[in-house]
Amino acid sequence: MNKPLILVVEDDAPVRNLITTTLKAHDYRYIVAPNASSAVLEASSHHPDVVLLDLGLPDLDGIEVIRKIRSWSNLPIIVISARSEDNDKINALDSGADDYLTKPFSVEELLARLRATLRRLSVTSNGADAESAVFQNGALKIDFPAGCAYLGEEELHLTPIEYKILCLLAKNLGKVLTHTYLTKEIWTNSGENEIATLRVYMASLRKKIESSGYPQIIQTHVGVGYRMLKS
Ligand code: CA
């Protein structure tokens, strides 16, 4: 099996070195890019498995790098940013990033995110993707043609909106979906008010899942959105 190739986009040399040393020690291959223009170039010429992307770059904002890469590729992008503001994370996720890490981060956290992203890739390439008729994640099963969801043997009795939320999270397994993304997908003319409504639906969806005796499968990212965890 080929070792995964990681593109590290970071202008700060000490942080870059920390990341590449970690990758090397854990059997990843890597290439580096110190700015946005070389990041786009390296991504298109080397087709890495994952991009680790700093948002604060000297030539262009990292968000622009996400947009450029997304114009031709779905390769996973994990944003690494010193900016702790939720808005930057949300912009990055809405522009097509898959996940984010906030600086300062631990080496363990970085490795865990990489593993999760690579696992999600292998799930997708095994055909258990959004095109499949039946989605299975641990005890959770969704039969898309029938429009039914199950936990173990029990059918979940969901409202149409709860079902829609569950399907969106399932089709983006492992990925953080922002409030804006979810509300846009669910309500066509969405505004600020829908975020509060979304929280209400999400709370009731969770209650139904958790009262069925299964551990939490939907993770809340406060101020950002929600993610379905891979079981
Ligand atoms: Ca930087």
Structure description:
The chain is α/β, with parallel strands linked by helices and 231 residues long. The protein has two domains: 5-125, Response regulator (Rossmann fold); 129-228, Winged helix-like DNA-binding domain superfamily/Winged helix DNA-binding domain (Arc Repressor Mutant, subunit A, Orthogonal Bundle), CATH 1.10.10.10. 43% of the residues lie in helices and 21% in strands. The protein is built from eight helices and twelve strands. The chain has helices spanning 13-25, 36-46, 62-70, 86-94, 107-125, 160-171, 179-186, 193-211, and strands at residues 5-9, 29-33, 50-54, 77-81, 99-102, 134-137, 140-143, 148-151, 154-156, 177-178, 218-221, 225-228. The chain has a five-stranded parallel sheet with strand order 2-1-3-4-5, sandwiched between helices. Helix 2 (36-46) packs parallel to helix 3 and helix 6 (160-171) packs across helix 8. The longest helix has 19 residues, at 107-125. It is globular. Bound molecules: calcium ion (CA). Residues 11-12, 54, 56-57 line the site of calcium ion (CA). Residues 11-12, 54, 56-57 line the site of calcium ion.
